[in-house]
Amino acid sequence: MSVSTTVARFDTLALDCGQRLAPVQVAYETYGELNTQRSNAILILHAFSGDAHAAGISAETGKPGWWDNMIGPGKAFDTRCYYVISSNVLGGCSGTTGPSSIDPGTGSPYGSNFPPVSIADMVRLQQLLTESLGISRLLCVSGGSMGGMQALQWAASYPDKVASVIPIATTHRHSAQQIAFNEVGRQAILADPDFNRGDFYGGKYPERGLAVARMVGHITYMSDGSMREKFGRRRRKSSGESDLFEVESYLRYRGGQFVSRFDANSYLVISRAMDTFDMTADCETLEDCFTRGDTRFLVLSFTSDWLYPSYQSQEIVRALRSRNRDVAYIELESNYGHDAFLLEAGEQTSLIRGFLENTFQRLAA
Q: What CA–CA distance (Å, rounded) separates 97 from 114?
């Protein structure tokens, strides 16, 4: 199916940092049809470098969506039954207000003047979007990695507006190791001589720093086993350089590809939002974050994911169970590392399909 990205605009958005964005816009796509009761809407939230194009073939680029193996007719998020919404996050660079957007006060890109945003700010904008679409309660909110953080924040911020949540390969707050990897990426960008303190628009783009940041990040998305299987110690001849290891060539390609579609300032803003995300910041304990509402949970993790290891999902599950919440947890076998949530459609599909059917039936009863 061919899909187009739509942009919704709002007058203002208050941020956790105390500042406001006015106006603010959010890019989104929809798949399937909203039923007459407006009870079949599902919000899909992307990971760090994703965008609104989650499924189908983009009318703008001709490329499939980043979760096309999970969203569509007969898939995990079955668009024959559900109305699926996918939006680009606040601070991004794919249609939603971010550092590369025009600051109405200056007529130039925000650049270094773009305010810090939080995961809660992202969710606040998403809630404005769903409300503008006439949806008072979502059937489900789901996402992997940073998308899972947003899904958890939905359950905490708007427990009466979401019937179920499916957080995948995620955490309720970053560990020191996770923060450390993000900081290496940020420092690579800041050290690029073309970064110009974030005000590089109209000049040379900090390509080298952003490419290195992506290379570091991409290493964390894979597992030792998947890298051994994909690359081993094989070498590849490259023009101008002799005997590159295949893994070197691959990382350089990924870095260069990323530069063509992502903004360096968005990298800084979004990675910082992930690092500062902490559901216990406003609660005494994680358990206290889930005391309101009757939201159901399906929590998924993967055995080879060392970036967001299963123990972090299990912490969330224990907190939910301690409050007698309706929660199911499954750790799935996979060799793909953190990327498993994007690649392992089979088992995820059967689990998510059954969970959504059960949730929908409960609401209809």
A: 10
For residue 253, what is the enclosing H or E element? helix 246-259
Tell me the residue type at 72: G
In DSSP notation, 48-113 reads TT--S--SSEETTT-PBPTTTTTEETTSSEETTT-EEEEEPPTT-SSSSS-TTSB-TTTSSB-GGG
Q: How many CA atoms does the CB half-sphere of 308 hold within 13 Å?
A: 33
CATH of 178-273, one of 1.10.1740.110, 3.30.10.20, 3.30.43.10, 1.10.10.10: 1.10.1740.110
- What's the CA gap between 101 and 115, in Å, rounded? 12
Token output for 14? 């208050």
How confident is the model over 189-216, as pLDDT tens digits? 999 999 999 999 999 999 999 999 999 9
Closest CA to 71 of 49, 35, 44, 36: 44
Name the class of domain 2-173+278-364: alpha beta
Domain locations along the chain? 2-173+278-364, 178-273
Rounded to 5 degrees, φ, ψ at 346 are: -55, -65
3-state secondary structure of 31: strand
CB-facing half-sphere around the CA of 319: CA atoms within 13 A? 23
- From the list 324, 310, 317, the residue with the least C-alpha distance to 286 is 317
Question: What is the tens place of the pLDDT at every residue in 44-61?
Answer: 999 999 999 999 999 989
SS3 158: coil
- Give the residue among 14, 10, 42 at the shortest CA–CA distance from 27: 10
Q: Is the pTM of this model over 0.90?
A: yes
Rounded to a whole number, what is the distance in angstroms from the first to the last CA of the chain? 33
How long, in residues, is the chain?
A: 365
Residue positions annotated with a catalytic role? 145, 305, 338
Handedness of CA 178, 329, 285, 290 (dihedral sign): positive
- For residues 204 and 195, give the distance between their C-alpha atoms in angstroms, rounded to a whole number: 8
**For residue 206, cis peptide bond before it (omega within 30 degrees of 0):** no
Instruction: Answer yes or no: are the C-beta atoms of 278 and 108 closer than 8 Å.
Output: no
Distance CA 340, CA 146 (A): 14
What φ, ψ does residue 214 adopt, rounded to 5°?
A: -70, -40
